[in-house]
Amino acid sequence: MEVTQVSVEVETRAPTGETSAYVLGSDPAVLVDPAAESADLDGFTAERDVAHVAVTHHHPDHVGAVARYADRCDATVWARVGRADAFEAATGVEPDRTFAEGTHIPTGSGQVRVVDTPGHAPEHVAFAASGVGGSADSVLVSGDLAVAEGSVVVGAPEGDVRAYLTSLRRVHTMGPDRLLPAHGPIVEGPAVRATATRLIAHRLEREKRIRDAVGAGAETVVEVCDAAYDKDLTGVRDLAEATVRAHLEKLAVEGRARWSGERARPSE
User: How is the chain split into domains, by residue range?
Assistant: First the structure.
């Protein structure tokens, strides 16, 4: 299966300033995450018979040009089952079809399979394909599930840390040959599982700091954030506080802290 990465400039909180769209297969092909219009993406969608448009999730830096390319290519538009209304609100397009875990979207050179990977967003999915470049290699178009460097924001109210960790563990078990993220470079070979392991460890270390902060008497999100982060949060303070909220929700569900939505307390 042919796989093409097309990076487009878009307003995003990601440090790259770009989102990668991917064209999977050919004649017909699937276009994933058309975040914005670009000359390069216009060119690739003109060269390939794009019959399907789908997104990994509904954040603005992933869906900005869904309407443009769905219309231009006269493509079938897909959305996560149960999330069609949210998809339409985000894209301005009513989906033609819905997918769920295990749904196969046909291309002219093989099937693209939907893989549930919630956590960063509740509707987040990835798209798996094999037989890439005439080999047996497998790829996973992973959206905002993972990045080669740094970390991914998992923040309340949409972020779910428990689901996110499960998704990373699932990718580690799957072990695709290549991970194709929306932001930053492609991850290949042994680095795929290493990246999943690193991100899990990072998330659990952050959780430990948050739990320790609560144990030391921090109660509000601001107090916990101040205690749990040892770096300058200028420009990302809102993301850090949303992350703290998501972790406090996880700790409360697991009975390892109490969280009222306003104040945290150590578990009894």
Answer: 3-189, 206-266
Residues 191, 171: contact at Cβ < 8 Å? no
Q: Does pTM surpass 0.90?
A: yes
Q: What is the pLDDT of residues 81-116, one digit of tens each?
A: 999 999 999 999 999 999 999 999 999 888 999 999
Q: Is the peptide bond before 95 cis (omega within 30 degrees of 0)?
A: no
Instruction: Provide the b/e sequence for 21-53 (b: ≥16 CB within 10 Å).
Output: bbbbbbebbbbbbbbbebeebeebbeebebbbb
- The correct answer on CATH 3.60.15.10 for the domain covering 3-189 is yes
Q: Which of 252, 246, 250 is nearest to 264 (CA)?
A: 252
Query: Are the C-beta atoms of residues 224 and 214 closer than 8 Å to each other?
Result: yes
119 SS3 class: coil
